[in-house]
Amino acid sequence: MTNTQLRFTKKHEWVLPLDEERARIGITDHAQQELGDIVFVENAELNQQVTAHDSLGVIESVKAASEFYAPLSGEVVAINEQLEDEPERINDDPYQEGWLVEIAYTNPQELEALLTEADYQAFLSEEE
Amino acid sequence: MSDKQLKQTPLFDLYQHNGAKKIIDYGGWALPVHFSSIIDEHHAVRQKAGLFDVSHMGEIRIEGEAAEKLVNLLMTNDITSLEINQARYTAMCYQNGGTVDDLLVYKLAEQTFLLVVNAANIDKDLDWIKAHHMDGVTITNLSEHIAQLAVQGPEAVNILQKLTDVRLADIKPFRFVQNVQLADVTDVLVSRTGYTGEDGFELYVSHDQAQALWQALLQADDRLQPCGLGARDTLRFEAKLALYGQELSPSISPFEAGIGFTVKIDKSSDFIGRAALMKEKQNQPTRKLVGLEIIDKGIPRHGYKVFSSSNQEIGFITSGTHSPSIQKQLGLALVQAEYGKLGTEVQVQIRSRLVDAVIVETPFYKRK
Hints:
The complex is a heterodimer.
Chain A lengths: L6 E2 L4 E5 L4 E6 L1 H7 L2 E5 L6 E2 L4 E7 L3 E5 L4 E6 L9 H4 L8 E5 L2 H5 L4 H11 L1
Antiparallel strand pairs in A: 1-2, 2-3, 3-9, 4-6, 5-8, 6-7, 8-9
Chain B lengths: L11 H4 L7 E4 L2 E4 L5 H10 L1 E5 L4 E6 L3 H8 L11 E8 L5 E11 L2 E6 L4 H10 L6 E4 L4 E7 L3 H6 L14 E7 L2 E7 L8 E7 L3 H11 L3 E4 L1 H10 L35 H10 L3 E8 L10 E4 L4 E10 L6 E8 L8 E6 L2 E8 L8
């Protein structure tokens, strides 16, 4: 994955700005590997207002349930409905077909504060 | 990885080599969740065969003139009818009928029994057994000396047969053969038992030979796939095999947990918990372990509350997951007995929502 636009959180979400007010959110390849086989997604709701760091939903693997969080404040303007029937898309293709939601964000400074890919990789190697 | 203080089985050094993806703390032991993926390993065991390291399990030897008397006093099942080279699944209970542990008793010789107990209960069980010590009995904890590998699945018998001349097909379920040579590994106890709902074998071997046995098995047949704790749990769950700490505990009796078949109220001598269990049996247990299927959306997990259709709390989920073989969201739940009938509509609280579910038949999976 090399997209210079892509940003990351320390909770293993990725954020791809689509334009100046809209960003797509998913979980990283590292996160999907940690979770293992994903079998259910309880996604955010359309038009839901969210604040950065709020829980957006829950991803369930065979073994456990784990929450994912809003990297940005704003409104949920799209959800990936494909995940309802094919949650394994997150395992197979976490950065493309496995995206979770799109948020119309209200505070661009939150976006600037996120990690670059290099920062995120450095963070991962520290964690290990 | 924070597994510095965790106990390691003799196979720990081979996990990485075999592609273990995630090592976790399981009751103080560093064990792999999966090698390829839980679902992949689960299907491998249902369709071909899987290899598990279960060396964390405890082994306690009880021997001497009064060994049978002591074991029969401690266990709810009848030990006196065991033949040499036969194993029996049993509960060990407190006076009040709550469960100390569930275990296998192997009769090695007329006066020698091997108890195979849950890893997290080794110290507790030893204390309990020693508290009932009798003259003429020696109690030895062999857990640090014995490793255990499990080969499970429909092809297990054919794969294991490649390593020995002993005719494995002749070993009946819950029977075993001692001092078997498997490849270059000697003195293995080969037992036709398991924890997956499939045919298979559990192999008890000295610690220092465990790595050689693991490698010999994987080299013998590439249909044999290394499996982790994750698949062990989904496999035993579908077959409704109890997991201590979930289906069983000091506050859950064998009757409630659906293993009443291990309680022989009428056996020839008294046993610990008999009075309480007899009373429970006469009055019918007030709680029952049932299977449920989520008909709405969500996955039931250990500890989630269960409600009646009229929103009354009636029990809790003991184990639950997305079942790889059945392809449904299933749970085992300990509920008030009157809600245990097949087809009863109930609700499971998943986070903040009440989700519809229905009581279904168990075990969820039965081998054909």
